[in-house]
Amino acid sequence: MKRVTPDQERRNAERQDFLVTCGWQNAQVMPLVDDASARKYFRLERRHDTALLMDFPPSAIHVDPHGVYDNPERPASVAPILQTTKLFKQAGWRVPEIYVADEKRGLVLIEDFGDITFTQALQGSAMFDGTTPDALYLRAVKQLIALHRFCDQGGMNDCGLVRYGPENLRRMLASFKADYLPLIIPDATRRDAVSTAFDQLLGTVLPLCWQAGEVIIHRDYHVDNLMLVENGEGGDDCGIIDFQDAALAPRPYDLASLLRDVRHDIDSDLEARMKDFYLAAFPDIDRSDFETAYIATSMVRNFRILGRFGWLAIKAGKTRYFDFIPRCWDMILRGAAENLPALQDWVDTHIPPDARTAPAIAKIQNLSGKEAQS
């Protein structure tokens, strides 16, 4: 049996005290599977009611999602969750209601959307017969169209979100150099040369992300964060979760996140159809500019994800995301030769095909040991 530490005992007591103030102290509490975040979720059940308890203690290690700080490790806070919930409700998105929040202690009681994600629907479970990938992705793209129309009509004014510029993206990608490149390029001298060339690449590519303008972005918009939620009218809404890192950023960012998701196979024809559907809603956008920005933001997302995978492996011992590394490189290079030849050239020159696979666990253990000693 795993021993409970004094810190865990204190946190358990804080959660129980919070539930007493909410009137949920007698609910059955079931922990949900965690992800790459320091946030934890618990499902509460009492009679016929359910809710979710979000636990994000201020003492948790939280990586600045926006590239605002040179040192990305920041104190955790639930304040962005409270802010973005209000904003996305104004935009017409179906997001979980916040019932009670204790910002100081990092505890929030929210609406339970259930368990039916778009991912499960796409896996073809019997209960979702007749739900096609096209239909689900179309619903997801329609949500982005609604959000971006809200932005075009003034929804970004005084929204209080961080506004990205190229330097934000550059800081986000520092982890790619610091936490991922050591896993595939052990020689420090060669790694420094690759990092210098990478910085030069970013100077060329990052400004192109804004060629199609900017909007409010969810920042982690993919089928795992989209849910089928009963609407009480015999149908279901597209419920959207995990949006606390919203920002003002390049227009294609969320669409690239949705259609170039390293965790899921997405047919290139489906990707093209969804982009066409999106662009048909905004006929004033130049398609060539949009495609260049789309490829550039996809590059940013996937280099950032590679850095995150490296950070999780070295700092937290989590290597289960390594299976996605080859797909990250596939997403980075898809369309690059035609739209961003500088990106294709950089990868071909510095990252050979055998370096685009999952790093050896022995390298992770060695780097983790050095980290522990430093």
Which stretches of 5+ consecutive residues score pLDDT under 50? none
What is the count of β-strands?
11
- The proportion of residues forming helix, as a percent range, comes to 40-55%
Q: Assign the CATH topology of the domain at 116-373.
A: Aminoglycoside 3'-phosphotransferase, Chain: A, domain 2
User: SSE string, helix = H, strand = E?
Assistant: HEEEEEHEEHHHHHEEEEHHHHHHH
CATH domain class of the domain at 116-373: Alpha Beta
What value does the average pLDDT take? Answer: 92
Question: N-to-C terminal Cα separation, in Å?
Answer: 32 Å
Short description, anyone?
The protein is an alpha+beta fold and 374 residues long.
Q: Secondary-structure blueprint of this entry?
A:
Blueprint lengths: L5 H17 L5 E4 L8 E7 L2 E7 L5 E3 L9 E3 L3 H12 L7 E5 L4 E4 L7 H5 L10 H23 L10 H7 L1 H11 L3 H18 L8 E4 L8 E5 L5 E5 L6 E4 L2 H7 L8 H13 L6 H30 L8 H9 L2 H4 L1 H10 L10 H13 L1
Antiparallel strand pairs: 1-2, 2-3, 3-7, 4-5, 6-7, 8-11, 9-10
Helix pairs in contact: 4-8, 4-9, 6-10, 7-13, 8-10, 10-11
Descriptive notes:
- There is one protein chain.
- With 374 residues, the protein is of the alpha+beta class.
- The protein has helices at 6-22, 79-90, 118-122, 133-155, 166-172, 174-184, 188-205, 253-259, 268-280, 287-316, 325-333, 336-339, 341-350, 361-373, and strands at 28-31, 40-46, 49-55, 61-63, 73-75, 98-102, 107-110, 214-217, 226-230, 236-240, 247-250.
- The chain has a domain at 116-373: Aminoglycoside 3'-phosphotransferase, Chain: A, domain 2 (Alpha-Beta Complex).
- The chain is 48% helix and 14% strand.
- Strands 1-2-3-7-6 form a five-stranded antiparallel beta sheet, covered by helices on one side. Strands 4-5 form a two-stranded antiparallel sheet. A two-stranded antiparallel ribbon has the order 8-11.
- β9 (226-230) and β10 (236-240) form a beta hairpin.
- α6 crosses α10 and α10 (287-316) packs antiparallel against α11 (325-333).
- The longest helix has 30 residues, at 287-316.
